[in-house]
């Protein structure tokens, strides 16, 4: 039975897991990535034609991280969509708040990037590192900690051993779970998770609009949940948007079914335009409209003996603020920073003190974001007249307070908390 050994095994090769692999690979670590998904698609067809359904809204901090890793230039050469403004309003009232990049002297508030492009850009860089091994279409079926002193020449007192679905085993003093919100590794390690059903599902699709978006991201809080129009630039035109519509599960099923026919897509376009208050004129749906349930999860701890969770494996939240991938990228950057610093000081791999520092730096910020999303959902989902009046006054009041607006914009840029060095 194979007992291949690495410095670290990363389970999950999505955007967050790939970023951690690149950070550690550049630092000279022997890295193995175990991923259930197939290899990312080739370069030729990416960033051309119809945009991919799944996109991410990247903050300035996340962009700086990808720039430091020499991933961003390639992605930007294909297709990214900067947004300079944001409009958020209560569709059932008069409250509205507007943000503009000029208010804090930056070029953009963020960028919308297709997930396929992100993965391809990371994969290109990883392929140039001989010390990073990638196992595609492989699943982890077992996990255990095993003393390594009995092995001749063992470098570590204790290793993580994972069993793969082909029967082989891999071992390392460090293992990272980056395998998503339903993390199998988290379950195998016996780490409890707190779950909160939001009572909503998120529908995603891509549309073409009669009126150009003008590099402005828009979000309307409807009675059933928030509707976001995220601006895309396609062939130099600003008439495309990526949609994230959070609504009740039953309504999401109805809307998904509409997108299955030409007549239904036309009706869905009408409902999307109406939900946005006709701000971008007629809306044409140009893709399928799948939906997925929204469940907020938070692991009760991020670390164990030689084990760390990052990204959705540690925390998953409501998509209304578009912060999920950004929080995961910060997890990866902080974890790599702590490990690289510790190795320079001669600390052994798997030192629990390193993992505790990572958890301490990230947990409070993630808890704050999870609580904020829960609060927003409850505030804007309430039908109580007093709360509706308060939220409209609140939005309009903040819109007139420039110091508060600047603070909120800085948070939207990801410029808050204990940022890792490569994100500053």
TrEMBL record:
Which Pfam family would be a valid example here?
FAD_binding_3
Record's superkingdom?
Bacteria
Gene Ontology MF: a single term: monooxygenase activity
User: Where does the record place the FAD-binding domain?
Assistant: 6-364
Cofactor names: FAD
Q: What family name appears in the similarity comment?
A: Belongs to the UbiH/COQ6 family.
Name the NCBIfam families on file.
Ubi-OHases (TIGR01988)
User: What's the protein here called?
Assistant: FAD-dependent monooxygenase
Which species does the entry assign this protein to?
A: Salinicola lusitanus
- Could you read off the lineage of the organism from its UniProt record? Bacteria, Pseudomonadati, Pseudomonadota, Gammaproteobacteria, Oceanospirillales
């Amino acid at each position: 039975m194979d007992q291949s050994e690495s410095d670290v095994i990363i389970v999950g090769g999505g955007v967050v897991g790939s970023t951690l692999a690149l950070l550690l690979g550049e630092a000279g670590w022997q890295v193995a990535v175990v991923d259930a998904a197939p290899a990312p698609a080739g370069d030729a067809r990416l960033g051309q034609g119809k945009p991919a359904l799944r996109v991410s809204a990247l903050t300035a901090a996340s962009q700086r991280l990808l720039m430091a890793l020499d991933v961003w230039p390639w992605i930007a050469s294909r297709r990214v969509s900067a947004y300079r403004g944001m409009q958020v309003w209560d569709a059932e009232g008069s409250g509205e708040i507007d943000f503009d990049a000029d208010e804090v002297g930056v070029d953009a508030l963020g960028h919308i990037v297709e997930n396929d492009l992100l993965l391809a850009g990371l994969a290109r860089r990883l392929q140039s590192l001989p010390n990073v091994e990638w196992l595609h279409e492989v699943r982890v079926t077992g996990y255990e900690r095993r003393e390594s002193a009995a092995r001749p020449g063992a470098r570590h007192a204790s290793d993580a051993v994972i069993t793969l679905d082909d029967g082989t085993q891999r071992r390392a003093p460090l293992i990272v779970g980056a395998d998503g919100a339903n993390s199998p590794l988290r379950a195998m390690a016996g780490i409890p998770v707190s779950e909160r059903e939001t009572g909503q599902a998120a529908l995603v699709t891509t549309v073409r609009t009669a009126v150009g978006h003008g590099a402005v991201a828009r979000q309307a809080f409807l009675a059933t949940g928030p509707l976001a129009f995220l601006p895309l630039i396609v062939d130099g035109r600003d008439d495309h948007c990526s949609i994230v519509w959070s609504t009740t599960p039953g309504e999401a099923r109805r809307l998904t079914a509409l997108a299955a026919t030409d007549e239904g897509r036309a009706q869905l376009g009408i409902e999307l335009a109406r939900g946005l208050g006709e701000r971008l004129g007629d809306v044409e749906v140009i893709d399928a409209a799948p939906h997925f349930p929204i469940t907020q999860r938070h692991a009760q701890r991020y670390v164990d003996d030689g084990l760390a969770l990052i990204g959705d494996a540690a925390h998953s939240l409501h998509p209304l603020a578009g912060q999920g991938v950004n929080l995961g990228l910060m997890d990866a950057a902080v974890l790599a920073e702590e490990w690289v610093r510790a190795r320079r000081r001669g600390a052994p791999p798997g030192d629990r003190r390193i993992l505790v520092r990572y958890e301490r730096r990230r947990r409070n910020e993630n808890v704050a974001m999870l609580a904020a999303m829960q609060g927003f959902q409850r505030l804007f989902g309430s039908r109580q007249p007093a709360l509706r009046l308060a939220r409209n006054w609140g939005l309009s009041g903040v819109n007139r307070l420039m110091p508060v607006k600047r603070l909120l914009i800085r948070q939207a840029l990801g410029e808050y908390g204990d940022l890792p060095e490569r994100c500053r």
